[in-house]
Amino acid sequence: MSTVREAARMSGALRDAARSRSQVARLIRLAAPPLLVFLVVIGIWYAVTYLVLQPSRRFLLPPPHDVVRYGFMEPTTRAELWRGLLRSAHVAFLGLGVAFVIGFATAVLMSQAKWIERSLYPWAVVLQTVPILAIVPLLGFWFGFGLMSRVIVCVIIALFPIIINTLTGLLSADRRLHDLLTLHGAGRWTRLTKLQIPAALPDIFTGLRTSAGLAVIGAIVGDFFFGRGRPGLGLLLAQYSSRLKSEELLAAVLVACGFGVAVFSAFGWLGRRVVGAWDESWGATSRIEVQDEEATQGVQTDTSREGVGEPTGRGEAP
Amino acid sequence: MVDDDAVISFRDVTKGFGAIRALTSVSLEIRAGEFVAIIGPSGCGKSTLLRLASRLEHPSSGSIVRRTERIGYVFQEPTLMPWRTVRRNVELLAELEGVDRRLRRERADAVLRLVGLDEFADVLPAALSGGMKMRASLARSLLLDPELFLFDEPFGALDQITRHRLNAELMALFTQRPFAALFVTHSVEEAVYLSSRVLVMSARPGRLVDAFEVPFPYPRPNALRYEPAFATLAGRVASSLAEVA
Ligand SMILES: Nc1ncnc2c1ncn2[C@@H]1O[C@H](COP(=O)(O)OP(=O)(O)O)[C@@H](O)[C@H]1O
Ligand SMILES: [Mg+2]
């Protein structure tokens, strides 16, 4: 009896080991291709620095190890970059937050009546097409060169995707469910909270992910062009480039890129967490392993007719 | 002429959408426990008829008298909320009508058992097959114990085997606790198997052009489909339908 259980436990342990081994294998399979690309890029970088550029012009593209040495290992530069990153992150998140609140509220309003949608939509488009560089001086003129103007720049460029995606989501709610709710006494508010907003969540996350990236760009671009105030990443970029400090400049560029990628993936992760279980665009498989009797019967007759060589589970999403 | 027993009665109802005349002079009564099937070419106004019965639309002329507020409405697609578990989907309407949480849950579990989905109460709809989703959709409406059930081609998207099975299950539910039903379908066989009366509708503008009483006593076994009397009646309905289509 106990040996049987022992054996069962052992085989369980073996299975667990096998599973964790296969997970490691999976991770390697996932990480290997982008890693390879990374190595190739580094290789090209070295090649350009040492083979293409004359030594006198090497300052245009210093080698990666110098970027690491002067940009990331040097304590003053590192502190400068770190502070710049924090300030830019602060601006970007404030901007994104404000854009989300305004955008979400606007989309909800627009979803409630066709005439509101028609009144606001053109202005949302105008906002989207405003050349941000043209109004940056104006914003500085009006709101000063501090936090306020920088946040406004972020809001302006992050707002549109939030409005449009949220609105699309709110209007995508099933018409018949809408009717069914109405039929059972639901008013606008109940339909909004029980049907439209949940149905819009996948699109809301799509909008947020896009806008988060834009807010990062907004924070850096605003900073860069205001050229005054407490330096964020944008101002550091401007300073390094005007002083021809190319190692620091490249380090700042890398930090900015890393920041953008991190924000984008954080929202991707959040989206998968919140709606990934049921929304296909966020990772849900269309049909999980549950089948009822009729389906199983159907499969059995299928295989008996088609023979065993046929792959099973066709039409099923991976 | 007006039957006091009628759960719902249409009197000379006309419905137009702008220039489109969807229904003309429809008169119809459904009594408690009566299962009425409507069959007709597509676009003839069958869905409109159900929307009128549910008061989602209002007649352009004529009148509709309905004696109950407890209606169930089942669509061709299951229309479940993908973010809610099966149980929470089934609880939805009770939630809207303010049924207390514990009672709601009890009733949801009861109807889930009734349609054979009790094991799947806690999964998301994406995990269900088409037939199971339709059962969940049926359970959602059953939970409020409707007196008038409106069906808009509920099994039209399912394969034949699943469809027959769900027909039998609906038959069982109906005989356990009869309700008045208005059942739109494009299958003659389904109409004759389920209903006590089959109404044939003409192409647009929809009119009721023919009515067939279905004499077979409830509950009807699935084997009824293969009996000569069934085939004869189904044949008459089909030829009437062929004339209007
Ligand atoms: N809300 C609406 N606005 C305009 N036309 C409609 C509307 N609803 C239905 N119709 C028209 O009414 C006719 C009947 O539609 P419907 O009742 O859906 O037909 P069926 O369900 O029999 O296929 C169709 O021609 C359809 O285009
Ligand atoms: Mg229809």
CATH superfamily of the largest domain in chain B: P-loop containing nucleotide triphosphate hydrolases
CATH structural fold name of the largest domain in chain B: Rossmann fold
CATH architecture annotation of the largest domain in chain A: Orthogonal Bundle
> In terms of quaternary structure, what is this?
heterodimer
What is the first-to-last residue Cα distance of chain A? 40 Å
Instruction: Kindly report the spatial arrangement of strands forming the biggest sheet of chain B.
Output: 5-6-7-3-8-9
**Helix coverage percent of chain A:** over 70%
Q: Biggest interface between protein chains, with counts per chain?
A: A-B, 34 and 32 residues
> Which regions of chain B contain 5 or more consecutive residues with pLDDT less than 50?
none
Overall SS class of chain B: alpha/beta
Helix content of chain B: 25-40%
Count of structural domains of chain A:
2
* Rounded mean pLDDT score of chain B: 92
Count of discrete alpha- or pi-helical segments spanning 4 or more residues of chain A: 11
Mean pLDDT level of chain A: 84
**Ligands and ions found:** adenosine-5'-diphosphate, magnesium ion
> What is the highest CATH level, the class of the largest domain in chain A?
Mainly Alpha
Number of alpha- plus pi-helical segments of chain B: 7
Strand content of chain A: under 5%
At CATH level 2, the architecture of the largest domain in chain B is 3-Layer(aba) Sandwich
